[in-house]
Design a protein that fits this description.
Helix content: over 70%
Distance between the termini: 63 Å
Structural class: mainly alpha
Keywords: Membrane, Transmembrane, Transmembrane helix
Order of helices and strands: H
Number of helices: 1
Length: about 40
């Protein structure tokens, strides 16, 4: 039972890290896109 609970916590931790990584990557790509648009704006 303890091992199953630990595995479940590891799964939830991986899911949280994955969601956080997706949000972080999206914000970084969005800021980079805005920065390049401001630089190359005619």
């Amino acid at each position: 039972m303890i091992n199953q609970r630990k595995v479940l916590n590891d799964e939830q931790y991986k899911i949280l890290v994955g969601i956080f990584g997706v949000i972080l990557a999206f914000s970084l790509s969005y800021s980079a896109l805005a920065l390049t648009q401001s630089i190359f704006k005619p």
